[in-house]
Design goal:
Order of helices and strands: HHHEHHEEHHHHHHHEHEHHEEHEHHEE
Shape: globular
CATH class of the largest domain: Alpha Beta
CATH superfamily of the largest domain: Vaccinia Virus protein VP39
Number of strands: 10
């Protein structure tokens, strides 16, 4: 039986956690997992393929191997492990996109200004970048591509269990608000073949939805609309879905989005959020650190069930039900009032 780590070891793991994150971003950026797809390769081969400094690449890979990300074999041969299989670009859920996103320089700059957020309550990203994080990515198309790829991967990882957490059987039209390139909506429509969909997001986002909808064979069943959910939301749907949208925004902004939804909805329609519900004290560290991610990045927050209820009331809804879909996601249903 292994000896549990002592308190100091656990503390140092937290203190140095950023080192693993950055190293993981580097190997994701270099595409190391793809190079190991067909079997072990030497560090020398990997360095030639990635145009990197072989001795230094080895130091990064052996550190990650010690953490279980790769397996180091005799002769400086590296192989994939169950962890690094997720980094492959052809993985069912390509988490390498998330490793790349969270290691971007602007993300690091935002976290570096966490103390500013603590002192002011403001977004650290806006403080260091001079603009909000959405404008920054729009002004840097290469970052927007990485962000969209990461969000697609995150959506794919939970789409099936989230779609199953709410009964859309009575719906003839389902609107996915802030639906990105349509991964979640495609999953729902495949489960409910008699329903049609509306995919709504910023114009430059939904412009990239074609391959996702084409691959799902759903192009003819989805109406694509571009716009801002602060200004208008398409009317006429029976269910309005938002996945990981309101956590990006402050209570004030989230209330504005909810009121815009309420204006578009009939009394019989339902709002279905797929969001985290923050756990009780001393539990659920993942949600609570994602809450800090929302703070330093877009300036939003994760919320407890009581906070979701209060937000719904402010936006013109009654909290109807909360159903756990996965460890990090719940279907939070609101009825118009």
């Amino acid at each position: 039986m292994s000896t549990p780590p002592d308190a100091l070891t656990e503390l140092m793991t937290i203190v140095t956690g950023y080192q693993r994150s950055r190293a993981l971003m580097v190997v994701a950026e270099l595409g190391i997992a793809d190079l190991l797809r067909d079997g072990p390769r030497s560090v020398d081969e990997l360095a030639r393929a990635t145009h990197t400094h072989e001795p230094t690449l080895y130091r990064v890979l052996r550190a990650l191997a010690a953490a279980g990300v790769f397996e180091e074999r005799p002769g400086r041969m590296l192989a994939l492990t169950p962890i690094s299989e997720f980094l492959r670009s052809d993985a069912a859920v390509p988490y390498g996109h998330l490793a790349r996103l969270f290691g971007r320089d602007y993300q690091w700059a935002a976290w570096g200004a966490l103390l500013h957020s603590v002192r002011t309550g403001e977004s650290a990203a806006r403080h260091v970048l001079g603009v909000d994080i959405w404008s920054y990515r729009q002004d840097h198309p290469e970052e927007n591509v990485i962000f969209n790829d990461a969000m697609l991967a995150a959506s794919l990882s939970r789409a099936a269990v989230e779609a199953a957490a709410y009964d859309f059987g009575r719906c003839t039209t389902i609107a996915d608000i802030g639906g990105g390139t349509g991964a979640l909506l495609a999953t729902i429509l495949r489960m409910y073949p008699n329903a049609r969909g509306i995919l709504f997001d910023q114009p430059h986002v939904v412009a990239e939805s074609g391959p996702v909808l084409d691959a799902a064979g759903l192009t003819s069943r989805v109406r694509i609309e571009g716009g801002s959910f602060f200004e208008r939301i398409p009317a006429g749907a029976d269910a309005y879905v938002m996945r990981r949208i309101l956590h990006d925004w402050s209570d004030e902004d989230a209330t504005m989005i909810l009121r815009c939804c309420r204006t578009a909805m009939t009394p019989e329609a339902r709002l279905v959020l797929f969001e985290r519900v923050v756990g009780p004290p001393n539990e659920d560290p993942v949600s609570k650190f994602v809450d800090l991610l929302m703070l330093v990045g877009p300036g939003g927050r994760e919320r407890t069930e009581d906070e979701w209820s209060s937000l719904f009331n402010a936006g013109g809804f009654r909290l109807e039900s909360v159903k756990r879909a996965a460890a990090d996601s719940s279907a939070i249903v609101g009825a118009p009032i």
